[in-house]
Amino acid sequence: MGYRELHRMEIEEVVRRWQVEESQRAIARATGLARETVKKYLAAAISLGLSATGPPPTELQLLELRRLGVVAVQPVTRVAPQLAMLEPYHQQIATWLDQDPGPRRSIV
């Protein structure tokens, strides 16, 4: 599934359900979000001083949660393990390829 930005109302719904003591799994099921996404927003809410038994979030806290979410949903770029293993030999491989004008086969 692709990455998408959560809207303020979705974040508010996650926090509201958490404050009425729903489990993360139940919140994920009800909102259609991944459990890891719910977990991430609840961890951010706790870091902003919200608690499961405290008052609802303020407008400023909701804006901060949304800002954190925009940054957190950026796709992570990963390097393939094979590429990382071959990187130290990049120049040597390029040199070999430039030196060898051997027969070229087309892949069809």
Overall geometry comes to: rod-shaped
Taking the sheet with the most strands, its summary is:
none
Amount of beta strand: under 5%
Measured on Cα atoms, how large is the radius of gyration?
23 Å
Are there runs of 5+ residues with pLDDT below 50, and where?
Answer: none
**Which structural class fits the helix and strand makeup?**
mainly alpha
The CA-CA distance between the termini, in Å, is: 32 Å
Mean pLDDT figure: 81
Q: Count helical runs.
A: 6
Instruction: Provide the succession of SSEs.
Output: HHHHHH
The counted number of beta strands is 0
Please bin the fraction of helical residues. Answer: 55-70%
How would you describe this protein?
There is one protein chain. With 108 residues, the protein is mostly helical. It has a domain at 8-72. It is 58% helix and 0% strand. The chain contains six helices and no strands. The chain has helices at 8-19, 24-31, 35-47, 59-72, 81-86, 90-99. α1 runs antiparallel to α2 and α1 packs across α3. It is rod-shaped, with a radius of gyration of 23 Å. The mean pLDDT is 81.
